[in-house]
Amino acid sequence: MAGFLDGKVALVTGGGTGIGAAAAEALARHGAAVAITGRRVARLDEVAGRITTAGGQVATLVSDVADEASATAAVEAAVAGLGRLDVVINSAGVNEAGGIGTLDLAGWRKVIDINLWGTIHTCKAALPHLRAAGGGDIVNISSTAGRRAAGLFASYATSKHGVNGFTESIRQELGGENIRVCLIEPGATETEIAQSVSDPVWAEMMQQHVSKAGAMQAGDIAEAIIFALMLPRRANVSQMLIRPTIDTAPM
């Protein structure tokens, strides 16, 4: 697989499904060796199979980004196995339904631990390796929920607002070291995120939202990631808000 990422190594969290899986395959098509992390072995193996069949190089790493030690171990294993680290895509994410009066604190912690702390854990572990490579790219996947809150999905909005603030902070901190940091905020995108919502009624509502007519596909967001990476090093796409062209019922 020849491309502009030849010789580069990318790490993708949440690489077994949705945007993470699409991103991993896109990165491999453009020449990167890819390490994909996630909690479900079978899903990681499916993505890895497609990459290797297409001629790409991939490593699968079972990891829980919510756990700092696990997230750090995955980064170290990726570098040990593939030799370096140049690109980090933080795509692991979950959702839950409920506000401060209806969602128990365990549900809040799950969403914030994976969506926000998982991103922080991975970035912190990756930073020494990006510096060793002379620079690189971090792309954090947020959501339109990172700029507007919804009371029934309060933990998700809280986590994504946190991701937005964290991403802009490290962009300012790391730009002088040739490390570009990009935030991508997708609107309705057809993925399996509704499966992480424990209430079946709200899970169905979320599923209808992400699969409605005109909803984007995970591959659309993967192409946005590639666009950000392809620009000259002097150009940093700091924030990219992507909505469906037809968005009749936004959440």
Compact overview of the structure:
It contains 7 helices and 9 strands. The chain is an alpha/beta fold and 251 residues long.
How does this model look, in words?
- It is a single chain.
- The chain is of the alpha/beta class and 251 residues long.
- The chain has a single domain, classed as NAD(P)-binding Rossmann-like Domain (Rossmann fold, 3-Layer(aba) Sandwich), CATH 3.40.50.
- The chain has helices at 18-29, 41-53, 68-82, 105-132, 154-174, 200-210, 218-230; strands at residues 9-13, 33-38, 58-62, 87-90, 136-141, 179-186, 189-190, 216-217, 239-242.
- Strands 3-2-1-4-5-6-9 form a seven-stranded parallel sheet, with helices on both faces. The chain has a two-stranded parallel sheet with strand order 7-8.
- Helix 1 runs parallel beside helix 2 (41-53).
- The termini are far apart.
- The model has no long low-confidence stretch (mean pLDDT 93).
Protein traits:
alpha/beta, Rossmann fold, seven-stranded parallel β-sheet, two-stranded parallel ribbon, 9 strands, globular, oxidoreductase activity, NAD(P)-bd_dom_sf, SDR family NAD(P)-dependent oxidoreductase, KR_dom
